[in-house]
Every structure is written in structure tokens, then in C-alpha cells.
Amino acid sequence: MKVTVSRKAHFNAAHRLFRKDWSFEKNDEIFGKCNNPNFHGHNYELIVSVEGDIDKETGYVIDMKILKDIIKTEIEDAFDHKNLNIEVPEFKDLNPTAENIAVVIYNKIKPLIDVSLDLVITLYETPRNFVTYSGN
Amino acid sequence: MKVTVSRKAHFNAAHRLFRKDWSFEKNDEIFGKCNNPNFHGHNYELIVSVEGDIDKETGYVIDMKILKDIIKTEIEDAFDHKNLNIEVPEFKDLNPTAENIAVVIYNKIKPLIDVSLDLVITLYETPRNFVTYSGN
Amino acid sequence: MKVTVSRKAHFNAAHRLFRKDWSFEKNDEIFGKCNNPNFHGHNYELIVSVEGDIDKETGYVIDMKILKDIIKTEIEDAFDHKNLNIEVPEFKDLNPTAENIAVVIYNKIKPLIDVSLDLVITLYETPRNFVTYSGN
Amino acid sequence: MKVTVSRKAHFNAAHRLFRKDWSFEKNDEIFGKCNNPNFHGHNYELIVSVEGDIDKETGYVIDMKILKDIIKTEIEDAFDHKNLNIEVPEFKDLNPTAENIAVVIYNKIKPLIDVSLDLVITLYETPRNFVTYSGN
Amino acid sequence: MKVTVSRKAHFNAAHRLFRKDWSFEKNDEIFGKCNNPNFHGHNYELIVSVEGDIDKETGYVIDMKILKDIIKTEIEDAFDHKNLNIEVPEFKDLNPTAENIAVVIYNKIKPLIDVSLDLVITLYETPRNFVTYSGN
Amino acid sequence: MKVTVSRKAHFNAAHRLFRKDWSFEKNDEIFGKCNNPNFHGHNYELIVSVEGDIDKETGYVIDMKILKDIIKTEIEDAFDHKNLNIEVPEFKDLNPTAENIAVVIYNKIKPLIDVSLDLVITLYETPRNFVTYSGN
Fold it and tell me: Whole-model pTM?
């Protein structure tokens, strides 16, 4: 019996959408006000979903406390109250769009959970915009 | 890397569930108080989800501003503060159930996005009732 | 010890903002697309708040079941899936703005609760627009 | 045209995570404060989703009133304001984790809907933790 | 310049509404299914609001980190995953209605904040029922 | 009959809590990770509430379209996708705490509405932290 368990978390961060290898004009054309060189920011709301078989012993797919600790260490401590472009190494050469942030979060968490478990990352950049990534 | 990006929007509309080719009694039996001939209404909350590969240049699946504009022109301008049965041509001979409204929204948006992108429409008729349609 | 207890409820209705004694042009100028003669509609979300002393015997300000029943009988049964302009007598000669609906709800519920209790009506016309009325 | 229709419901219940065949120490190690012998509790928020073809006659996948009644009879009446471990027979020998509760809800509702319809159960144990089960 | 700052928190607990000095029949008549002797439970969502002058030095009414710590120590650690009737001393002889829980929370937090600050407690017993207490 | 009408809006911005006239050490001690020199950010959710008498002609306290336009011009256009410390003149010498932002918003909107109307600003810095200012 496969069940998906999901845990919500959140972090607040500044970012700017731009590519170093593009001119300011091109960045401005593509990213508009998201390319503000002084940065803007978001309260990112994160849902980490793990799918797998229910463990018959415990009735758990994964112990939520373990999942919560992984999210705390890997994501909240690394991203919260940070400037994603400047302070998070994964975005040194990667544009921190919501899409790319979701992929980075997936890649940080996936190696830390059992290989039999599927992972889906849902990331709300605002209450009106969100992305989902499942590793495919 | 396939990512789904989602954008929320909303419109307020009046509607009535009924079929012109049925008697009032039959409409009443099937649709109950939703068949009120004087109409009732909803704040429809809409989530438009687009799945596709991340563009390596921009880090976007689709530019949200473009998606937002499509939703504005095709759905909000056409449905908001309207009587769906009387003023929206798609429902002239189609019962405006949440299911049918979701299909109509899908059919209006799909031709306007790149053919490589998948589309999913989620429509909340109330905060407690919602439908999802992905074109299959 | 004065405590305010609040209960949420909801109803879906059609309405139109206009005054019979104004021309269509004047209604249109003042009420814009809310003056659509074919009506539009909303999911109204209602919060009924009652303030009073905690009853030392029960620990209640008011029994929520009683409050829930009053809201059901007076508001939900009377307004839900209705056309406010046509089918709700209070709006026969009263423009059903959110402000006026809140006042009507207040006036219907106030006589049914103990005279020592204060009443506040909060009415969400949409998730983004709401009004509050406390009888003053 | 396959559409998924979803209906929200809720119930409040007490529970305790533990296995009768384990020592208190082992239960404590695995379930931590969820193993409190005096119980704790939750407002469970439930989303029942049914996927199937739109009925061309009615425009419905399933009549929401029928689905609402099934949820009321099978789930709300059986679980609401109950102690899941003591008063709900399905959990007599089954640990009431969110995962297991979702499976039990699935198994109670599935036989009551048309065999052509797919069912997905989403259960929020808290606003921050939820599970999804689709019968596979 | 008086500003109110509010912080949300939450705890999950079991409880039962009843008075030891009443018969089971009387408890049942007044408290209905909330009098279940096996308990039921809730995810309580708490909003602690503190009103006072903005400190001109810091721009704060109160440092949210300090308020967060007070809520953690006084309320979350004391109430979360507990049976309110059995394990929280304040309810040994006090019926744990939402009203009374709000008063208890107020009385625990008030002495720990500066005497110049006003305190308001808002407690959601469910997403549909909530109470507010401001110490008067 | 006094009614309060409220309108929600939102803006995304970067900020940093610090005082130019304090040492980095003192800023760090008081503002902790909010003092990150590289900035962090939020999705600010704003509720603008206006209290006044219902206009007997229109049934409005204030035309929501007018209020929406004031919020758009004065707040969203000025703050959205901006760095509050660097790009918003009001915070040149004022620490952009939630409290101070609410006061600035109040002071920008108050002169633009009728002198008979009361104004309350509620500002969510995150879904868990918010402030309220009513001009006193």
C-alpha cells in the first residue's frame, strides 16, 4: 500500500533573477522587475512529499520527525534569512527561479531518504505562484 | 527536468445548473437548489498548472507573466462578473457544472501555450468543492 | 471575564448592485460590472462573533450548537443558493452591497441571542474583500 | 473526458500511536510524544477525490450531494468526536497513524462508489502534515 | 504610536468537556458529544497579540523572538500532545472549553511581558470555531 | 451605521533590519539573522480597513475600486519587488520592521481618504507574524 506523506516548512529569502553572462538589458527584458539589482524577496512555503509503502510495523511511510529534521538541516538552515544569489552556493551560477530552487531542494533531500521512496517538492514562491518537481 | 508551474487566479460569476431539454421537474430532481431559475453564484478560484522542461537559458518552464496574461484575457475577462449561462457562449448549450467549466477553461488555454507543455486545470467552485482536469 | 466566540458559516448567492430609482447609466457609472443585469455571484464566508461573560457553570459564552443552529435557520436557509435581489425580501428595496448584507445579517441574529451579548458580523464577499459590522 | 472532483470534510478525534504487542519503552522510542497514554488529538481535514468520466447527461462525474452523504455517514458519523483507538473498530488492532487512517477511509468509501471511478484520499492530520492514498 | 504585533503558534491536544460535580446525564445534556469519556481532540491554532508603543530605538513593539520563546515554553511545551483534562494542572477543576483555555493562556503569558503591553489571545479550536480574550 | 470594509493586497520585497548609527555587533545582537547585510525578503500580505458610515445612496462605505486603486498606486507600485532599505525613501533613516512599515503605509493612505473615515493597517510579514496599526 503506497501512501504519500507530506510535510510543510518555510523560509524567507532575498533573490534576484538574472544571468551573469547576459547584459543588463537582456536580463531586464526577460526577467523584468525580478531583475532588480537590489534584490526582492519571498516567504517561500515548501511541501516535501515522500511516497512509499506503509511500514507494517510502525504504520509510517517515513517518521515525520526524521523528515522534519532533514528539512530543517538541509533547507531551512541553509536558505532561511539568506540572499539566495550571494549566500547559497548552489545558486552561484544558477538563476534562482522557483523552478531551479525546487530542483536544488530535491537534489539535497533525495540522497538522505531511503532509495525506495519517491520524492516530490512543491514550492510556493508566493501564495499565488508555485512549482512542483518530482525528479523526472 | 520536468517541472510543473502553477498560477492562481479568480473570477466571480452567477450560474444555474439545468438542461433546456429537460422538464423543470427533472432538472429539479437532478440539480436541486443549483437549478434555481434566478441563479446563484460563486467566487471561482482557478489554478492553471503547466508542466514542461525547464528552459536552461531562463530557468523558467514558462514565463509566469505570459501565463498570467493568457489567464487574464481568456478567462478573467470572459467570465468575471458574468452570468455563465447567459453571457458566456461556451455554456449556451452546455451545463455549467464545475466539471464542464474546467474543460472549457482547458480548451481555451491549451492552444495558446507551446505544444510541448502539459496543462492541468484545477477549479474551486467553493472552498470545499473543486475539480481537476488534465485533458485526458 | 468577557470572551468573544466566533463561528464560521457560508452561503453561495447571486446578486446585482443597482438602485431601481436610478437610470441604468447612473447605476453603471457607480457600480460598474457589479451592475450586470444578468447578475453575478459569490461564495460568501460569514463569521458570527458573540461577546459576553463566560458562564461559570458551563465555561461557555454561548453554546456553539445553538449559535450554529441560529445561523443555519436565519442565514444559510434564507440566503444559500438564492438570488439576493429577487428572493430575499430584505433586499427588495435595499442594494445588496456587502455592507448592507452584513447589517441585514446582524439585524436577523441580534434579537435571537441574549440581550447581554454583543454581536459582530464579518462577511467575506471574496477572499480579498470583507466587511465588519458591530451594530453601532 | 476524465475529471477529478474533490470534496472537503473534517472530523475531530483523539488518538494515540502505539502497538499493544510492543513494550512501553519501544512504543516511546518509536512514537515519542504521540505515544502519550492519555491520548492527544487532531482536527482532521479530509479531501475525498473521485476521478471518472463526465456524465454527458448531467455534466457531473458524481453528484456531490451523494458523495457528501457517503462521507457524512461513513466517516464523519463514525470518527467525529471519537477516540480512534478505543471507539473505532478498524483501529482495534491497527495503529491510527495518518497513513493507516487514510487507508481505512479509502476502504470504507471505495465499495460505495461506482466501480468505474478512481478514489484518492487526502488527510491532513495538522495544517502542516498530510497524507495521500489512492489504493495502490 | 501603538501597534499590535501578533504571532501564530499551535498545539495538538485531547480534551473532554464535563464537570466532575455534575451527573453524566447532565454533562451529556449540556456538552453532547464533547462529553465523550474517551476524549476527542483538536489542533489548536493560537494567535498571541501584544499591543504597545513602538520602541524608537529598535522599531519593535516586542522582539518576536522573545514572544516566540515565551509561547514555546509556557504554552506549546505545556499543552502540546497532552490530555488537557488529565495532564494540564490548570484544568484539574476547570472545564477546558475554548473560552477557558484562552483565559488560562492569557494568565500564563501576561505576567511575562512588560506591564505596559496589552495582550489579546485568539484561539482556534477548529478552523470554524475560535475565541478571543483580552483580559477584561 | 458604521461598517468596516477591508481589502487585501500584497507585495514582495527585500529588507534588512539594522540601524546605521549602531555597530554591526549591536545590530547583530538586537536583530540577529534579520540583520543579514545581504538582505532577506518577504511576501507581505496587506489588509487595508476603512471604517465609516454606510452611504445611504450607494450602500458603500467607500468604493472598493477607489480603495484598490489607492493601494495600487501608493503601496504596490512603490514597494513591490523593491529593496525597502535602498529603494523606498521612507526607510532611508527608518528601520523597516513590520511595525514601521505598517505606520508608513498608514501615513501614505490616510490623507487620500475622506477625513471622516478611520483607517486600520494589518500587515503580514509572514503567514505567522503580523502587525496592526490604527493611527493612535
Answer: 0.96
